[in-house]
Amino acid sequence: MIKKILDSSAAQWLDDRTHAVQYIRFHLIDYPTPKNLNYMYAFGSIALVVLILQVLSGLFLAMDYKAATLPTGNGFSLAFDSVERIMRDVNYGWLIRYMHAVGATTFFFVIYLHMARGLYYGSYKKPREFLWIMGVMILLIMQATVFFGYLLPWGQMSFWGATVITNIFGAVPVIGDWLLQLVRGGFSVGDPTLGRFFVLHFLTPLLLIVVVLWHVMALHVVHSNNPTGVETSKKNIIPFHPYYTVKDLLGIGVFLIIYSYFVFFNPTGNGLIIEVNNFNPANPMHTPGDISPVWYLTPWYEILRSVPNKLLGIVGMGFAYVCLFLLPWLDRSPVRSARYRPVYRMMLIVFFVAIGTLGYCGHHPVTPELTLVGRIASVFYFAFFFLLPFVHKFEKTKPLPEDV
Ligand code: HEM
Questions:
Q1: Residue 25 DSSP code
Q2: Which of 288, 322, 351 is at the close of a domain?
Q3: Last residue of a domain, one of 288, 313, 343
Q4: Rounded CA gap, 192 and 186, in Å?
Q5: What is d(CA 308, CA 122) in angstroms, rounded to the nearest whole number?
Q6: Rounded CA gap, 226 and 54, in Å?
Q7: For a substitution probing ligand 1, which of 131, 141, 215 has the most ligand atoms within 8 Å of its CB?
Q8: Measuring CA to CA, which residue among 269, 210, 167, 174 is closest to residue 51?
Q9: CATH number of the domain to which 173 belongs
Q10: Helical H runs in 152-239?
Q11: Residue 329 and residue 229 in one domain
Q12: In 3D, which of 338, 273, 357 has the Cα closest to residue 105?
């Protein structure tokens, strides 16, 4: 059916003038892929679908959202009230809002699995370094986007979360106070903060789209790695359509079922999607007992919190991202996939457990015990990157297959 459309005279007419059909054929139909890609390779396409859902639902939300803290007749802020209006009065507003909120959480879930797959199969290694770097950029932009977006409903967690996180800027030496005021647009989080966060929450997804396009373009130059990590011979290459269009559609279908479950039956995800306290309007006079970022930001937040000095904490958190950027050059082993690298596989498992532990600690109020656990987990996080350059010296890899 798709081939018929592309062979039609109308498509030919368009192609003679724009090369659009050739482009689609090259990148979506005939695009050469190894024949042994498993379902872990569906996460890239799923992420694309979530990105589209987020942009669309975000645009519809923006049509009715008001970025202002002015009090309304009932004493709430315009921002908080406009979200309530979207939920109650706007046709299908509740659906659009929950799609957006659930989408943000599932986006991170999908991306973390996508990254874990890349780590396991060594997809960050030459020649896919740029692909990986663009990926880490995407992660940073996503985290910034979600941070800006979280302030918009102007609930208790929005306000206090933004207060805690923007405070970080104040720790920068010399220019800290100036920077903090610049970010907040005043001495504390308020109406000017909401205005700039709304603009930035609109802007960063545009940047995200550009970087994602670059990520996919880079992929189409170096082509997909595969679970064995060995180069694929010509005889084991198959076209993307119909093999992976169908396989990815199945993955997308399963994802949409899980996504719909949360949208329709559990939109707060027991506090993991929307903090229950955020249904209360922001109150600058009342600090909640437990302020923590959403779960997908907590591993990095915990690294920051693990260091007793605020400035060093920021440096530590920044270094955690730098390590991710440097990964392709830290790992010197000629073997890609963890399937054939027993030591790397063990290190990776410890690394994943460390990230999970950091996430857990960062999500809970500070106690001496959790602080200690968080510090140990931070050490394990960095140990992964520090040990990586030496592993190939003593690791006995398993024999590699000749072909995929
Ligand atoms: C909006 C976010 C993203 C989108 C839409 C996206 C999209 C894709 C797509 C469509 C593929 C090809 C299919 C696949 O291998 O799954 C891919 C591959 C890849 N992505 Fe992403 N990606 C995103 C984020 C990231 C992030 C955050 C990273 C890592 C930090 C990353 C690293 C990679 C790598 C290394 C590959 C090659 C995998 C291989 O060939 O084995 N991506 N991406």
A1: I
A2: 288
A3: 288
A4: 7
A5: 34
A6: 29
A7: 215
A8: 210
A9: 1.20.810.10
A10: 156-167, 176-184, 191-222
A11: no
A12: 273
Question: If we measure between CA atoms, which residue out of 121, 188, 176 comes closest to residue 339?
Answer: 121
- What is the spatial distance between Cα 356 and Cα 314, in angstroms, rounded to a whole number? 20
Q: Taking Cα atoms as reference points, which of 272, 292, 296 lies closest to residue 139? A: 296
Name the band, by pLDDT with cuts 50, 70 and 90, for residue 331.
Answer: very high
Question: What tens digit of pLDDT does each residue of 62-107 get?
Answer: 999 999 999 998 889 999 999 999 999 999 999 999 999 999 999 9
- Indicate whether 142 and 268 sit together in one domain: yes
d(CA 166, CA 196): 13
Residue 203, domain member (yes or no): yes
Indicate whether 21 belongs to any domain. no
d(CA 141, CA 200): 11
44 Cα: distance to centroid of ligand 1 (angstroms): 5
Q: What are phi and psi of 77, to 5 degrees?
A: -80, 160
| Residues 318 and 248 placed together within one structural domain of the fold | no
Q: What pTM did the predictor assign?
A: 0.95
Distance in angstroms (rounded) separating the CA atoms of residues 84 and 90 = 9
pLDDT over threshold 90, residue 291: no
The boundaries of the domain holding residue 257 are 26-288
Indicate whether residue 48 lines ligand 1 (CB < 6 A).
yes
Tokens of 162: 């933004």
Q: Which atom of ligand 1 is nearest to the CA of 226?
A: 41
Nearest to 294 by CA among 147, 97, 111: 147
CA of 21 to the centre of ligand 1 (A): 24
Cα(170)–Cα(166) distance, integer angstroms: 8
From the CA of 77, how far away is ligand 1's center (Å)? 40
In-domain check, residue 264: yes
Residue 340 above 90 pLDDT? yes
Does ligand 1 lie within 6 Å of residue 225's CB atom? yes
- According to DSSP, the β-strands at 237-239 and 32-34 are antiparallel
Q: How many domains does the chain have?
A: 2
- The one-letter amino acid code at 52 reads I
Is 146 domain-assigned?
Answer: yes
Task: State the pLDDT at residue 295.
Answer: 92
Count the neighbouring beta carbons within 10 Å of the beta carbon of residue 173: 6
Does residue 317 line the site of ligand 1, with CB under 6 A? no
Using 50, 70 and 90 to split pLDDT, how confident is the model at 323? very high
316 lines ligand 1 (CB under 6 A): no
163 with 188: CB under 8 angstroms? yes
What is the C-alpha separation between 321 and 316, in angstroms, rounded?
9
